[in-house]
Amino acid sequence: MDKTYRTAGDAVEDIPNRATIAVGGFGICGIPSVLLKALLDVGTTELEAVSNNAGLDNAGLGMLLRAGRLRRMVASYVGENKEFARQYLSGELEVELTPQGTLAERMRAGGSGIPGFYTATGVGTQVAEGGLPWKYDDSGNVIVASPPKETKVFATAEGEKEYVLEEAIVADFGLVRAWKGDRHGNLVYRQSSRNFNPLAAMCGRVTIAEVEELVEPGELDPNDVHTPGVYVQRVVALTPEQAADKRIEKTTTRPRPGGPSSTEGALVDDAATHGLGG
């Protein structure tokens, strides 16, 4: 089955208002930037986004955030996005902060048909006991707080230990970026872009993948496939210009031996160093 769509706009145009989207990437590494820009352009609003964080102020999810298109975020941290922090603290955005490993497992569980799981992370804190501020009003008062979660004691090799129940995440749509993909939706990620992308692909009921290089079915070695096509419903092939458009979150300089002074520095622009694998 050929799952390719002509443009990113065609692939996202039926995402309705108030949908939940799971978005791959970490910071701005491996984010589905073309799909997110297309979603911004079609005007979809009041979205709930599940992602490790909201990227930068003007990149990826940050574009939707700045345009006021997000009503809720499920993330592991606010990160470098000042607008994300501003909207959260001013009561414009509801935010469910979740431990990073727990968030990853909630997404994986959703894609595996597992409704919930027990973890030791968060036991004895507000993660389990409830009371984490999810939403403020414009005066800084908490108006929505996290509920208490079920806990259970299990026997372990170290003795009895308490665990907290976390529920799986299933999103209406998953948006991911892959290095290579075929027309059947089989995906390969490169280097550190293989972060939250496989998980976002798994937990979306309808998953849309933008791929830097589209190949024909049978060209990918099955042993190299990270996300099987069964998890992917739509594929968008990027243009060479779109594929090459990768931002660097932080620019690092260092003195070049025998070269410029440390003040002038030399740009460290190594894709692996900066995690630009996707």
UniProtKB/TrEMBL annotation:
Residues 243-252 have a biased composition (Basic and acidic residues). Coiled coil: none annotated. Residues 242-278 are annotated as: Disordered. InterPro entries: 3-oxoacid_CoA-transf_A (IPR012792), CoA_trans_fam_I (IPR004165), NagB/RpiA_transferase-like (IPR037171). The keyword Transferase applies. Keywords: Transferase. NCBIfam families: pcaI_scoA_fam. This is CoA transferase subunit A.
